[in-house]
Amino acid sequence: xxxxxxxxxxxxxxxxxxxxxxxxxxxxxxxxxxxxxxxxxxxxxxxxxxxxxxxxxxxxxxxxxxxxxxxxxxxxxxxxxxxxxxxxxxxxxxxxxxxxxx
Amino acid sequence: xxxxxxxxxxxxxxxxxxxxxxxxxxxxxxxxxxxxxxxxxxxxxxxxxxxxxxxxxxxxxxxxxxxxxxxxxxxxxxxxxxxxxxxxxxxxxxxxxxxxxxxxxxxxxxxxxxxxxxxxxxxxxxxxxxxxxxxxxxxxxxxxxxxxxxxxxxxxxxxxxxxxxx
Lengths: 102, 166
Description:
- The complex is a heterodimer of chains A (102) and B (166).
- Chain A is mostly helical and 102 residues long.
- Chain A contains three helices and no strands.
- Chain B is an all-alpha fold.
- Chain B has two domains: 1-83, NADH-ubiquinone/plastoquinone oxidoreductase chain 6, subunit NuoJ (Four Helix Bundle (Hemerythrin (Met), subunit A)); 120-166, no CATH class.
- Chain B has helices at 2-23, 27-47, 51-75, 90-110, 122-133, 138-159.
- In chain B, helix 1 packs antiparallel against helix 2 and helix 2 (27-47) runs antiparallel to helix 3 (51-75).
- Chains A and B meet through helix 1, helix 2 and helix 3 of A and helix 1, helix 2, helix 3, helix 4 and helix 5 of B.
């Protein structure tokens, strides 16, 4: 197994764990954490491509910078929504929040 | 040889911590596992000679995002939350994820990658990154700053108690 393949399998494992978290978790904050895992899996793939695959060198690095930036914005907004949700329903259990208003 | 061993160790720690994130019952433990996993990914970036990205990863993910997540956990402490069980679609989700993983591994191993000899000079990659970021990707770069500003304002507006008493 080459280093590229090792990194790709590692990224795939991280992505699938994140996907499982998104699908199976009930707590909104835990779902957010799983989304962070998935974003990181993509970054792992990108860095592996940047180092070992022809034609992706610096562009992959730029993409990683953008992914990290968007992740920061996303987490800030999503947690604001979670706090609002908690204030309105007094729960962060996603299964119990099924309406758009109280 | 030693590089391969270090890479393998980092990979095992990262994936084990990720398993912890999705398997643990306690939300705070999940946050700590997530921190370990994120720092593991930063170490992977270091092994790939991407120092700047590793630094950004530690600062933004390891610092900012984990702290914000911990704040959210503290502020949404409901009695039920310490022991929230996963929902009923758990076996289905596990099956879907194992299937996707098998597919991705098969794809990664089957694809004939056009590989190149990895560079050994980290400064060269960093220079190329900064040149691209401030030439071809200048407009996306500026838009990213705008996105951050809008997210900041949006977060403030969302969490503020409005006239209607929230």
